[in-house]
Amino acid sequence: MLAVLMGTALGAPRTGTVAVCFEAELANRLEPVMEIHEEGRCSGGRAVVIRQGAGAGQSSTGANGTALYSVPIPASGRYDVWLRARWLDECSNSILLLPPGGTLCTVTDHTFGNWHWVRGCAPHLEAGNHTFMLRNREDGVAVDQFLILSAGQKPPRGVVRPNVVPGNPSGPQKHNSLALAVTAVPRKLPGKPPRRYDVRHSLGGTGDGAAYPAMVCALPGVAIDLDLWLRNNTSTPAHGAVRLRQIAGLRLKKSESQDVTAAEHSLSQVSFTVVPEEELPIGEHPVRFHIRTGRKLRRAGTRLIRPLEWQFAGPFDHPAKSTIDVAHPPETDGVRRKTYTAGKKTVGWKTYPRHKTYSPFGFVDLVRLFGDVRWKACYARTQITVRESGDCQLVLMGDDMVRVWIDGVRTATADAALPATLNRRMARITLTAGKHDVLLKSCQARNYWEFFVTFAPLAGRPPAVFGVPLANQDWGSPK
Question: Measuring CA to CA, how many Å separate 89 from each of 68, 85, 323?
């Protein structure tokens, strides 16, 4: 399957040029936040994608994501490694590549929005099998193909016909069986709007350092497609069954179990669809798959996040370089008033369609609600109910500055000039049984404007937190 090309298959390279081409989605092992997506303009119709909003590599090493490829190199020599990639913008235009025996390098350029070839590194490789590794550096990127050429040669434009299928990984990454990856996509929830990102922000903020693994938004009534990708790294077919473990509050369409056959050295897809219900508690919900082939049982999974649902008031002018302590009418006049003065305008509490409010990862995308503005602030309010009293952890993230009050008491503030997954606060709180008011303030300097709030368990039994449907929230006369 490997060739020393002497014709025109790669745009008439010189005689004796070595070319190895393989598909990015055929990784021998793929870990979150890397996913496989259907992409119409790709070779084979699929690509490895790090969705925008999944979290950049700098946000946490635990949720970084890798892809491993074991491929044969026919002859010793110096090579150039190229990736066919697509970048979104200036803050989404790089990925890390580790060649065999080499140094981790950054693959990047400044061609945005189109599939194109990007030169990665120039390692010296001996003849034989070698393992290449991709690692996440920024989100909003996609990789279609790898092309390894003799040094000094350039790839043609467009897709190249692959001539290698990655084989068994060797060394410490050995995984000569089924490798599993899960892609979860909520229908009708768009990604972040494509726009240039000014990367001149401070990385010296004071956000809490705990890892944030990307979780997929689970809104009541919005179907979520769960695709389980099985990569068979062996030389024999694998036959078995996949079962999705059901969760209370998550309705499964069709059967919970499906048969699967994975041909040797191939990629197979098994798909499920789930629909969250109103009774799904606020917070994180692991979704687990059990895959049985012969006597072996393997597990894979992903995480869904049931977010709070909000009403919004704003935007209010928030002067440049102001801190989050600068107050606006919902703070000074009370959260239960119907209208406020915002400059020369009157604003009130407003509810937006769910598909317009949330990103696929459960963040409230305020740019979609108020536009791509600068130096503004807005407020959001909601109510929750708790069935049993207890302690839990409030998780707060925001870009640029964000603060939360519960029942009028300031609970947490994240005020670093950082992307949302880096600007976060965790606060241990006690919630008594019954209904609670939640107020949030978010300030915008420039670029992305978003926030995320949830309740996470602590050691022991956490309280069950449920959102109050917006239609049932009681915001009558002030307390």
Answer: 25, 12, 28
What would you report as the CA-atom Rg of the chain, rounded to the nearest whole angstrom? 25
Buried b (16+ CB within 10 A) or exposed e, 370-389: eeeeebbbbbbbbbbbbeee
Q: Is the dihedral of CA 398, 402, 408, 411 positive or negative?
A: positive
- Map out the domains of the chain as residue ranges: 3-174, 181-306, 311-472
Domain 3-174 matches domain 181-306 at the CATH topology level: no
Query: Under a CB-based contact definition with an 8 Å cutoff, are residues 437 and 450 in contact?
Result: no
Measured between alpha carbons, how far is 330 from 380 in angstroms, rounded to an integer?
9
Amino acid at 6: M
Ramachandran quadrant class, 278 (left: phi over 0; alpha: psi -120 to 50; beta: rest): alpha
- pTM (predicted TM-score): 0.88
434: left (phi over 0), alpha (psi -120 to 50) or beta: left
CB 13 within 8 A of CB 5: yes
| Fold of the domain spanning 3-174 | Jelly Rolls (2.60.120)
Would you place residue 123 in the very low, low, confident or very high pLDDT band (cuts 50, 70, 90)?
Answer: very high
Average pLDDT, the chain: 87
CB contact at 8 A, 128 and 77: no
Question: Does domain 311-472 sit in CATH 1.10.3470?
Answer: no
State the number of CA atoms in the 13 A half-sphere of 47 facing the CB: 21
Helices and strands (H and E) in the chain: how many: 3, 34
- Residues sharing a CB contact under 8 Å with residue 468, sequence separation 6 or more, in sequence order: 382, 383, 384, 385, 435
Q: 181-306 has which fold?
A: Immunoglobulin-like (2.60.40)
Which of 351, 446, 360 is closest to 399 using CA atoms? 446
Helix (H) or strand (E) holding 125: strand 124-125
pLDDT in tens, 57-85: 444 444 478 999 999 999 999 999 999 99
